[in-house]
Specification:
The longest helix has 16 residues. With about 375 residues, the chain is α+β, with helices and mostly antiparallel strands. The chain contains eight helices and 28 strands.
Amino acid sequence: MKRDFIEVNEKIKAGKAVVMTAEEAAELVASDGVKAAAKKIDVVTTGTFGPMCSSGAVLNFGHSEPPIRMGKITLNDVECYGGLAAVDTYVGATQPSNDKGMQYGGAHVIEDLIAGKSVKLRASSYGTDCYPRKEIETQIGLEDMNQAMLFNPRNAYQNYSAATNSTERTLYTYMGTLLPNKRNVTYSTSGALSPLLKDPELRATGIGTRIFLGGAQGYVAFEGTQTVFNHHELESGGDWYGGVTLAVVGDMKRMSAQYIRAAVFEGYGCSMFVGIGIPYPVLDEDFLAQLAKPDEELFTRVFDYSVPSRSRPALRLVSYAELRSGEIELDGKRARTAPLSSLRIAREIASELKEQVQKGEFLLSEPVQYFERGKVNKPLNIK
């Protein structure tokens, strides 16, 4: 049994496509087997909602009269990048506020704008003949902007490592608060619903893939920063995948604050929860077998975050079913587990995406280019 994107999209347009979430597909495969299930299912939807620090927005404010070439720019006292021509800027999700510090940042600006709020724009310039104005201060919202693009260089981590802490003191990290002596473990992947874990070989994901992004339709713009292809066959059977990320883009004016949320991590700073979902065509039985893998067959590694990242040891391999149980064993002791990502909202995304595909509102897009394999991540070489 084989299908392609064209065939699946024709069934979607005709209202005849059978669409299931990844969890529903796993149940059907468990009861009917892969071969029978592959004949029934056309599309499998996925979803994730977790902190994705490498995120931000490209904004175009439009020209004032007289015009200004904005150099120093702030939105609600959050510094934005001023090197994008006259009235374009990029606001990064983790940039802290000048007056509120780590309690408010770029992620909050983005969420406020998507929620329909206005923010205070301040900009200054040295002035030129073509851009004589030197200062501007005003309130601005999404409806006032020409373009507002969420552009996130590194999102939807395929399989983020779980974190613990072996020291005697509490650590405050982007993986949350890690208690001393390996008393807790945090993780941030949605397991059986995680988009890139369900397409680990990237058979249907690449540049141009249409995705659910923040409540709207968006696209994969390029491979995400720090992408590396990792695949290991496990001695116990099965596979471990990790390392792929996505650079994504979408129209903020169509998004919902339900799926774009600012967050503050104690001792670390701001981050932004981003909702992403990808619908996958059931290309063949082998692909469905991967799409339908349950949490029991998907694994990540637990790392000691008290050790510098280049020499950080992997303490053990653990399934997402174990992590979701609430505790795992580390060094003969029980450690509590807690997700940073929201399984409830990941399920909402997969279900909403399923409904959109069933209604013919969301067609699948075949990548215009697949990602290059064989890349490695290089450390910063300090000279």
